[in-house]
Amino acid sequence: MVKNMTAEQGRTKEIVLFGLFTALTAIGAFIRIPVPVCPFTLQLLFTTLAGLILGSRRGALSVGLYVLLGLSGVPVFTEGGGLSYIFQPTFGYLIGFIAGAWVTGRIREITGGKSFGQILLANLSGLLVVYLFGMVYVYIINNFYLGTPIGIWPVVLYCFILAVPGDICLCLLAAVMARRLERAAGDFIR
Description:
Blueprint: H1 2-28, E1 32-33, E2 40-41, H2 43-54, H3 56-71, H4 91-111, H5 116-144, H6 152-161, H7 164-185
Antiparallel strand pairs: 1-2
Helix pairs in contact: 1-2, 1-3, 2-3, 2-4, 2-7, 3-4, 4-5, 5-6, 5-7
């Protein structure tokens, strides 16, 4: 019976953490930090933390649940929700958040992810994946669906060079937060 209780408690903990990171990602979409040229949200912070704390598989599933909620019509994206959101140029970043959470978690799992440097490496790797998905999607949707041609270099300039400094700061913050959360929450998040 004790073994069943432990399994039940473990499942409850997993559901709570899934829901928590899905909700934090949704909230992060509406916390906008106004900076010149490329204002950004805190979605990346929470999707990165999901990968770090929940691990690769569960982190990606948590972010995937967020994306599915938005596509089903729940207004959790920065511009609302619904299936038509796939035609927004920024939808690629949402796909990238799923892949980025997986990569972040996976690299932390492979390296052991105990030191600040290992955690930051995982975060920056996940960030690159997010940007790769986002920039490719911006290019494809603008050139082949919206009919507003854009070259590779403008995409790199506006969607990477001007935007990445703030997201690097979020990666640093996520590395600090992950270590502190793990110390504070202990066994609950492990």
